[in-house]
C-alpha cells in the first residue's frame, strides 16, 4: 500500500515537472506564418531581411495578442479582433506609423489566407489606418553637403578605401539611390556611354538613374585606378569592393558616413538616407518636377514622393514675400 502510494506521488511529481518544462503551445498564426513568408519571398521577390524581420515581427506581435486572449482559431478572428489589437498596440504606446505598418502586414497575411481558402472573409478589409502627422525628412543644406564632400575628398588622399568611399558619397548625393542599392551595385550596372546607373530597387524593380558630370568623372577614375589597386589582380562582380573583393554591407557604409560627417564638423545625426532626402529636396528647390524626382527615387507611388512638396511650398512662399507688393 505504501509502495503504491509513493509510486503514485512520484508519477504526479514527474507530471508536474513535465508541465513546468514544456514549451508553450504555438499560436494560431504559427503554422501559416512561414508559408506566408515563403510566398512573399517567391512571389514578390522581397529581400530576406525585409520579410524575416519586419513581417515576422509584426505577425508575432499579433500572435502574442491572440494567445493572451485565448484565441486559437483563425476563422474566429473578425474586424473587432483587429480593432482590439490596434487598441492594445496604442496602450503599449506604439506609434501610429508602426501600427499602420502592422495593419498592412496583417492585411497582406489575411488576403493570403483568403486566397488559400483557410478563412472565408478578410477581417482587415474595412479597418482604417490610424492618422499620422507628416514627418518631414531630415536633410542637409547645400553648404553642409559641400562640407561633407570636402572632408571626404581630404580623406580620399590617404588610401584607396577612402578614395572609394569618396566616390560612393558623391554617387549617393548625385543619384539619390538607397544605400542598400549603392552597396549592391554590380560592375555592369554602370554604363559609360549613357552616363547612367542601372539600379535594382525594392521588389527587384529596375530603373535607370542619370549621373552628374562630376560624379561620372570620379567614378571613371575609381574604375581605372582605385578599384584595380583594391583588386590586386583578382576579379569581382561588385562595383564598390572591400579589400577582400566583395560587396560592402550597408551597415559598414553607415559607419563610414558618420565618420566623414564628424570630420566635416556636422553635428546633426545623418545617415545615408539623409543624402537621398537632400538629393530630392535640392532638385525640387531648383525647379525639378515631382514626377521626374519620383522616377529617379524609384517610388512606385507618387504619393510617397509628395512628402517633399513642403520644399516647393516654402519656395513659393519665399517668392511671394519677395515679389508681391503686399507680401
List strands and helices in order, with pairings.
Elements (H helix, E strand, L loop, with lengths): L1 H20 L8 H14 L4 H21 L10 H13 L4 H20 L26 H15 L3 H16 L3 H5 L6 E2 L4 E5 L5 E5 L2 H19 L18 H14 L8 H14 L4 H8 L4 H4 L3 H15 L4
Antiparallel strand pairs: 1-2, 2-3
Helix pairs in contact: 2-3, 3-5, 6-7, 7-9, 7-11
Short key terms for the protein model shown above:
mainly alpha; hpI Integrase, Chain A; 2 domains; 3-stranded antiparallel beta sheet; 61% helix
Describe this structure in words.
- With 327 residues, the chain is mainly alpha-helical.
- It has two domains: 30-115; 151-321, hpI Integrase, Chain A (Orthogonal Bundle), CATH 1.10.443.
- It is built from 14 helices and three strands.
- The protein has helices at residues 2-21, 30-43, 48-68, 79-91, 96-115, 142-156, 160-175, 179-183, 213-231, 250-263, 272-285, 290-297, 302-305, 309-323; strands at 190-191, 196-200, 206-210.
- It has a three-stranded antiparallel sheet.
- Strand 1 (190-191) and strand 2 form a beta hairpin.
- Helix 2 (30-43) packs antiparallel against helix 3 (48-68) and helix 6 (142-156) packs antiparallel against helix 7.
- Residues 1-7 and 9-25 have low confidence and may be disordered.
- Total domains, how many? 2
Cα gyration radius (Å): 27 Å
Query: What would you call the shape?
Result: globular
Q: How would you sum up the major sheet?
A: 3 strands, antiparallel
Amino acid at each position: 500500500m505504501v509502495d503504491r502510494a509513493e509510486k503514485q506521488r512520484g508519477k504526479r511529481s514527474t507530471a508536474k515537472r513535465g508541465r513546468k518544462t514544456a514549451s508553450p503551445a504555438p499560436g494560431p498564426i504559427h503554422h501559416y506564418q512561414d508559408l506566408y513568408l515563403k510566398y512573399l519571398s517567391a512571389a514578390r521577390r522581397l529581400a530576406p531581411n525585409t520579410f524575416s524581420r519586419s513581417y515576422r515581427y509584426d505577425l508575432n506581435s499579433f500572435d502574442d495578442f491572440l494567445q493572451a486572449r485565448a484565441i486559437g482559431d483563425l476563422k474566429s478572428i473578425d474586424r473587432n479582433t483587429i480593432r482590439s489589437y490596434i487598441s492594445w498596440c496604442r496602450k503599449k504606446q506604439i506609434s501610429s506609423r508602426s501600427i499602420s505598418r502592422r495593419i498592412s502586414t496583417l492585411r497582406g497575411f489575411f488576403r493570403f489566407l483568403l486566397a488559400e481558402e483557410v478563412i472565408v472573409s478578410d477581417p482587415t478589409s474595412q479597418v482604417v489606418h490610424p492618422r499620422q502627422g507628416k514627418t518631414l525628412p531630415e536633410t542637409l543644406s547645400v553648404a553642409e553637403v559641400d562640407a561633407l564632400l570636402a572632408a571626404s575628398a581630404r580623406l580620399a588622399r590617404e588610401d584607396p578605401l577612402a578614395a572609394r568611399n569618396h566616390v560612393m558619397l558623391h554617387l549617393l548625393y548625385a543619384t539619390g539611390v538607397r544605400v542598400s542599392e549603392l552597396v549592391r551595385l554590380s560592375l555592369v550596372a554602370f554604363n559609360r556611354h549613357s552616363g547612367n546607373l542601372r539600379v535594382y530597387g525594392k521588389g527587384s524593380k529596375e530603373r535607370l538613374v542619370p549621373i552628374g558630370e562630376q560624379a561620372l568623372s570620379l567614378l571613371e577614375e575609381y574604375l581605372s585606378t582605385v578599384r584595380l589597386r583594391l583588386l590586386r589582380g583578382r576579379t569581382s562582380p561588385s562595383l564598390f569592393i572591400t579589400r577582400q573583393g566583395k560587396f560592402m554591407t550597408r551597415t559598414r557604409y553607415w559607419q563610414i558616413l558618420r565618420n566623414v560627417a564628424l570630420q566635416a564638423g556636422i553635428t546633426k545625426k545623418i545617415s545615408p538616407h539623409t543624402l537621398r532626402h537632400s538629393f530630392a529636396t535640392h532638385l525640387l528647390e531648383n525647379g525639378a518636377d515631382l514626377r521626374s524626382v519620383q522616377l529617379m527615387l524609384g517610388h512606385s507611388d507618387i504619393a510617397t514622393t509628395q512628402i517633399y512638396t513642403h520644399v516647393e511650398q516654402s519656395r513659393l512662399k519665399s517668392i511671394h514675400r519677395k515679389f508681391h507688393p503686399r507680401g
